[in-house]
Write a structure and sequence with these properties.
- Chain B: It holds the Pfam family PSCyt1.
- The complex is a heterodimer of chains A (484) and B (728).
- Chain A is built from 14 helices and 17 strands.
- In chain A, the strands form 5 sheets. In chain A, strands 1, 4, 5, 6, 7, 8, 11, 12 and 15 form a 9-stranded mixed beta sheet that branches. In chain A, strands 2-3 form a two-stranded antiparallel sheet.
- Chain A has helices at residues 2-11, 14-32, 36-40, 82-86, 94-97, 136-140, 158-167, 177-185, 246-267, 270-293, 300-306, 316-328, 347-371, 442-452; strands at residues 62-68, 121-124, 129-132, 145-152, 195-201, 226-228, 333-339, 378-383, 387-392, 403-406, 410-415, 423-425, 427-428, 435-437, 440-441, 462-464, 467-469.
- Chain A is globular, with a radius of gyration of 24 Å.
- With 484 residues, chain A is α/β, with parallel strands linked by helices.
- In chain A, a hairpin with a 6-residue loop joins β13 and β14.
- Chain A folds into 2 domains: 2-40; 62-482, Alkaline Phosphatase, subunit A.
- With 728 residues, chain B is of the alpha/beta class.
- Chain B has 5 domains: 3-169; 184-306, no CATH class; 325-474, Alpha-Beta Horseshoe (Leucine-rich repeat, LRR (right-handed beta-alpha superhelix)); 491-566, Immunoglobulin-like, CATH 2.60.40; 573-727, Jelly Rolls (Sandwich).
- Mean pLDDT of chain B is 86; it is low at 180-184.
- In chain B, β1 and β2 (348-352) form a beta hairpin.
- In chain B, α4 (48-62) packs antiparallel against α8 (143-169), α10 packs across α13 and α13 (272-283) packs across α14 (300-306).
- The chains are: A alpha/beta (484), B alpha/beta (728).
- At the A-B interface, α10, α11 and α13 of A face α14 and β1 of B.
Chain lengths: 484, 728
């Protein structure tokens, strides 16, 4: 018996052994320092956090993030700058441009002529917010939106900027926002993954999305984003092979779980239990997913609301409708990526089509959640990874131009989830190049999203390789001004 | 100092005294000529000299007698002469400054208490300094008088400086950074007044530093309501209800470089939101008493103003105790989650999922925590009317989601016992108007009711709204009465658009009840003449199908075009005699008969898969048929995208024979080449010839060697892309 215990100890995985050891030592050290929290703490771990329960009463229970991959041009959609039209073709003043780092695509450009939007803007709703003519449906719901015109980021190229927005770091390997929420809040519906991902592609110049964007990083792999794809098998490898019935599957899983349990007894690796949980989840998903993915019962009103494309799998409209269904079924974080917003050239032609692709369905999602009484507990976010320049990339002709990447300011909108409706937050200068009021850093944005979900971004911590990690890294302030 | 110079300065000082007395006496009667105004405006520049010089001189004056007593004679003499000169220069510069100041004060926009104080303390400095200068060598002048005189002058200096600063920088300039730290708590929305908390703060931030009782630029004072209503020199600020003709709005909307634009360029400008607020306020009769929440709920001014106030942060307190942790844990299972709203919150939220797993027991089982449940989600569960009785036990329930359940509304009466219920969602149920009309009145606390997608008509909802004013009805999106939108085009259901002998045409549309009309002759289908698709159409020849979708209440779709290709003869083996373009390898020789078609974007790796490409050499494909075949047509499906230099072949030759070595030319084809910029197309180029019986077939297709002159890439090799070959 003694021998077995010894072997068990030896077989303990190194990192787990060390982390347990350090926890023990750490507690002892803390105890000796008479930290009051140590004695008043009721079942918290060393970071004062019980994963799986919000830190305070949440405003939002779920997030739907309509990510516009490639960076939509704010000048043509939300950030109305008549001055740019007036100054069409004039060089951007050096005082405005400052020492902004440029991408390799325009760094060698000799001239930086300003270019105004080819499309007109109007004011809408009670909030009198300016919206471009490219977004007729979004314009109708501005009173439900909080339009933030003063987002800024640190990265200047797509991949780092996307990774930064989703994981809080420009390099990969950190957990994505959805994974953090899954870790912090636990499941609402145990039959579906907490974090799902839906991809679509517009006609415009596209940029890749990679699975690292929905990676669980160093968190338990149960928090990984699950991609739902179009076609007959929305979740790959979920369907039983021909000839296998549900009871056989159950028996197989039970036996497998017994074997895994033996393995866990022996090695004590928590990944083994995570794996068993995933098998069980997959088993339940076999019935839950078809129920969620079934669009055939959606009434005509809904199809008209989202537009007829919502029944064509793989389109943005279909993904919006699915996002609503998943969210309604308790999926904490539904992440959409719509590609094709990278208009370095040929912008007027491409952006019009891109806008048409997403406008109706984005607005429909907000309307639909509202009519189901779900908008106040669902946070909808719409936006890209950075903005686009006020000057043209490449040649400026009478009716054609392009815009390069611009991290200094961009526009996103949020709706529901306890965010103030019908407001426009932040301002850019009259050339739409620099923020002049209420800047919102990516980490501020992330802190705000976590806050709405009932999580304190400074307390949502995971210790990994000796360091405590947060989604907001070491900065970020909740933007209280946009919270209702 | 030169005696003569001193004499001159003393005379100037005397003259200044007389002149100042004159200006003060006739203050109201003299007018500063235009050319003298710049002199007046140099007041703020010059005033720093007398301040510094007189401060130094007065400190020295205070210690004058002590120095005379203690220091050695040489030092003492220098001290006396230096001080005397300093005092004279100080008094004289003070005089000039005062004269300039008096000129400046005649200009527009200076009045009020601060000006008065500044004026008299300033004049006081001059007279005091002059006095000290004239009397300081009298015999009765002693140390005590010197100290008193010096101190008084310094006090006047500080006073004049302070009031002068108030005039230029505004009141409380000095302590503003400190006082802003201790701003009073912002008003909450329910107390906020339209004028005092929305409009007045705009004036305070952007206007009042010039338009206050002390500065009064343009005779306008925005510091108090009465003064604001009075207007300024040009007239009243606004015509109530008419923002278009109101002075206030005209001034703020003038172009920035216009002289009359307010605030003047260089000062902080109004934000667009502030401009909108001012316009809306004037439009709504510029009321100065109303509260924000007195405005109608859909009022723009209220809407924007609401965003400015923080509702008092209300953390909800519950007066019940938390349920036992173990009990909560035991109620959780795969299809039901029971979780606290937040850490340390006693309140619980309950969600039920999976229709198949639902029984009414799932609700009853919750009775150990019936006090704690504040949120219950039964969305899509087959809940019956009778089950609501079980729900009615949850005394503290605030939000109940019954969307898409099987209730009819008959059991709603059971829920009236829920005194905390604020939100009830009944969307997608068969709840009836009668049931609601009868029972809604008993829901005292209910704030929101979702009845979208029920049998209720708009009129019925309006009627319910009328009798239940406290409840917000969510009627949702009404597709039937909204503007029609366009259908999306039909799609092909056949697994491939390439067929052997014949094919039953299968078209589909994702929306139910859509009628598909189509043509096979290349003409545009319409909603009247074209055939209705019924699944009976059989294609035996290569066909261009055009189809549109129609449905009542929708606009017809755009036309969808489908090319159906016939490929009746498949070779038993194929091989290429010359290599493929390295980028477009596809599946080698098999590409041409694999039944898979390519799409546009062939230069992007993911879409290049089905395209075999040739640039440097011809396409030379030999196919072998074990059984001789009779052939009369060979077609190549190619891409034409002149923008990326993808052209159709210049020549297609078809050779055939009974053996590999004995083949003769069966036919040639010179496909039409693009002669100008055209949008990209995919098409089949077909070479027809007299029917022949062959066992071997060789197809040669030559890429365009020299791109024609109209093209930017002229003279270079064009790329030839082929994804399929059809032999018939």
């Amino acid at each position: 018996m003694e021998k077995e215990i010894l072997e068990h100890g030896l077989n303990f995985n190194r990192r787990r052994f060390l982390s347990r050891l350090s926890l023990g030592l750490g507690s002892a050290a803390l105890g000796s320092l008479l930290i009051p929290d140590l004695f008043s703490g009721n079942g918290m771990d060393e970071d004062g956090l019980t994963p799986g329960i919000p830190h305070f009463a949440p405003k939002a229970k779920r997030v739907i993030y309509l990510f516009q991959n490639g960076a939509p041009s704010q000048q043509e959609l939300f950030d109305y700058k008549p001055k740019l039209r007036e100054m069409m073709g004039q060089e951007i003043p050096p005082s405005v441009r400052g020492t902004q780092r440029l991408t390799g695509m325009t760094a060698n450009q000799k001239q930086f002529p300003l270019v105004g939007s080819f499309v007109d803007f109007k004011q809408y709703g009670q909030s009198r917010a300016w919206v471009s003519d490219l977004f007729p449906y979004t314009a109708k719901i501005v009173d439900d939106l909080c339009i933030v015109k003063s987002m800024f980021t640190e990265a200047i190229n797509h991949d780092p900027a996307l990774t930064f927005l989703q994981t809080g770091s420009q390099q990969g390997n950190r957990p994505s926002m959805g994974s953090w929420l899954s870790y912090g809040l636990g499941n609402e519906n145990k039959n579906l993954p907490n974090f799902t991902v839906l991809l679509s592609r517009g006609i415009g110049n596209g940029q890749g999305v990679y699975s690292k964007l929905w990676s669980n990083g160093f968190l338990d792999s149960i928090h990984q984003g699950v991609q739902f794809s179009k076609g007959e098998d929305p979740v790959l490898y979920l369907r039983d092979p021909d000839g296998m019935n549900r009871q056989d599957r159950r028996d197989m899983l039970d036996n497998l779980a017994q074997l895994n349990d033996l393995s866990y007894q022996e090695f004590g690796d928590p990944e083994i239990t995570a794996k068993v949980k995933q098998y069980e989840m997959a088993y339940r998903m076999q019935t839950a997913v078809p129920e969620v993915m079934d669009l055939s019962k959606e009434p005509d009103d809904i199809i008209k609301l989202y537009g007829p494309d919502c029944l064509v799998p793989g389109t943005f409209a279909a993904n919006c409708l699915l996002a609503r269904k998943l969210s309604e079924n308790g999926v904490r974080f539904v992440q959409l990526y719509h590609q094709g917003w990278d208009q370095h050239g040929n912008l007027p032609f491409e952006i019009a089509k891109q806008a048409k692709d997403v406008d109706q369905a984005s607005a429909a999602l907000v309307t639909d959640l509202k009519q189901r009484g779900l908008l106040d507990e669902t946070l909808v976010i719409w936006g890209g990874e950075f903005g686009r320049t006020s000057y043209t990339q490449g040649k400026l002709t009478k009716d054609n131009y392009g815009r390069d990447h611009h991290p200094r300011c961009f526009t996103i909108w949020m709706a529901g989830g306890g965010i103030k409706p019908g407001i426009v937050y932040g301002e850019t200068d009259e050339m739409g190049y620099n923020i002049v009021k209420d800047p919102v850093h990516v980490h501020d944005f992330q802190a705000t999203v976590l806050n709405q979900m009932g999580l304190n971004h400074e307390k949502l911590i995971f210790k990994h390789l000796g360091r405590r990690y947060r989604l907001t890294d070491v900065s970020g302030k909740v933007v209280h001004d946009i919270i209702a | 100092m030169n005696k003569r110079l001193i004499g001159l300065a003393e005379q100037a000082l005397f003259a200044a005294t007389i002149f100042i007395l004159f200006l003060l006496l006739f203050n109201d009667r003299f007018v500063v000529p235009l050319w003298l105004q710049p002199l007046g405006r140099m007041h703020p520049l010059l005033l720093h000299f007398p301040i510094v010089i007189l401060l130094l001189a007065m400190i020295m004056e205070a210690f004058r007698f002590r120095i005379a007593k203690t220091a050695n004679p040489a030092v003492s003499e220098f001290y006396r002469d230096f001080l005397s000169g300093l005092l004279l220069i100080g008094a004289l510069s003070a005089g000039v400054t005062v004269i300039m100041g008096l000129f400046l004060s005649k200009e527009d926009g200076y009045s009020g208490q601060a000006l008065l104080w500044h004026k008299w303390t300033g004049v006081g400095i001059f007279f005091l300094a002059s006095l000290v200068y004239w009397i300081r060598n009298k015999r009765w002048y002693n140390a005590r008088i010197a100290q008193v005189g010096a101190l008084t002058t310094v006090i006047f200096l500080i006073g004049a400086g302070h009031y002068g600063a108030t005039l230029t920088h505004g009141d409380n300039f000095l302590f503003e950074p400190l006082s802003s730290q201790f701003k009073p708590e912002p008003v909450s929305l329910d107390k906020a007044l339209v004028y005092a908390n929305v409009i007045q703060p705009i004036f305070e931030q952007k206007c009042i530093s010039c338009h206050n009782p002390d500065k009064l630029k343009g005779q306008l004072n925005l510091a108090s309501v009465e003064a604001m209503l009075k207007g300024g020199k040009t007239g009243k600020l606004f015509v109530a209800g008419k923002p278009d003709v109101s002075l206030l709005l005209q001034r703020i909307h003038l172009p920035l470089d216009e002289k009359k634009h307010m605030p003047p360029s260089g000062k902080t400008q109004l934000t667009p939101q502030e401009m909108t607020l001012l316009a809306l306020w004037v439009k709504e009769n510029a009321d100065v008493k109303k509260r924000v929440i007195d405005l109608p709920a859909n009022d723009s001014l209220r809407f924007i103003a609401t965003g400015l106030f923080k509702p008092s942060e209300q953390v909800e307190e519950f007066d019940f105790d938390a349920a036992d942790e173990e009990t909560v844990k035991s109620l959780n299972n795969d299809y039901r989650t029971v979780a606290p709203l937040a850490k340390e919150s006693p309140a619980l939220a309950v969600n039920l999922y999976n229709k198949a797993a639902f029984t009414a027991e799932k609700i009853t089982e919750l009775s150990p925590v019936k006090q704690q449940i504040v949120y219950l989600n039964l969305n899509k569960m087959p809940v019956k009317d009778a089950d609501l009785k079980r729900v009615s036990e949850f005394d503290n329930l605030q939000k109940l989601d019954l969307n898409f359940t099987d209730i009819t509304g008959a059991g709603l009466g059971d829920l009236t016992s829920l005194k905390q219920l604020q939100m009830l969602s009944l969307a997608g149920t068969s709840v009836t108007f009668e049931a609601l009309q009868k029972q809604l009145g008993a829901f005292k606390q209910l704030k929101t009711l979702a009845v979208w997608n029920t049998g209720l008509t708009t009129a019925q909802i309006a009627q319910l709204q009328k009798s239940n004013k406290g409840i917000q009805f969510i009627a949702g999106f009404d597709g039937a009465s909204s503007e029609p939108i366009k259908l999306n085009p039909p799609q092909v259901k056949n697994s491939s658009t390439i067929f052997g002998q014949s094919l039953v045409l299968q078209l589909k549309h994702p929306i139910k009840g859509v009628q598909i009309r189509y043509t096979t002759d290349g003409t545009e289908p319409d909603s009247i003449h074209s055939s209705v698709f019924n699944g009976q159409t059989v294609l035996t020849q290569p066909t261009l199908v055009k189809a549109k979708a129609y449905k009542t209440g929708w606009f017809g779709s755009n036309v969808a075009t489908f090319d159906f290709y016939k490929s009746s003869l498949k070779p038993d083996s194929v091989n290429l005699l010359m290599p493929l373009n390295p980028v477009h390898q596809a599946d080698g020789a098999h590409t041409f008969f694999d039944g898979r078609l390519g799409t546009f974007n062939a230069n992007s790796p993911a879409w290049a898969n089905n395209w075999a490409g040739f640039r440097k050499n011809d396409m030379a494909l030999v196919s072998e048929f074990k059984k001789p075949i009779t052939v009369s047509s060979v077609a190549l499906r190619v891409m034409v995208e002149e923008e990326t230099s993808i052209f159709p072949p210049s020549v297609v030759e078809v050779w055939g024979g009974s053996s590999r070595d004995q083949m003769k030319l069966l036919g040639t084809l010179k496909p039409e080449q693009p002669t100008k910029k055209i949008p990209p197309i995919l098409k089949a180029v077909e070479c027809r010839f007299k029917p022949q019986t062959v066992s071997f077939l060789k197809i040669i297709a030559k890429p365009v060697k020299q791109i024609p002159d109209w093209h930017p890439n002229k003279g270079n090799n064009a790329l030839l892309l082929v994804d399929e070959v059809f032999i018939n």
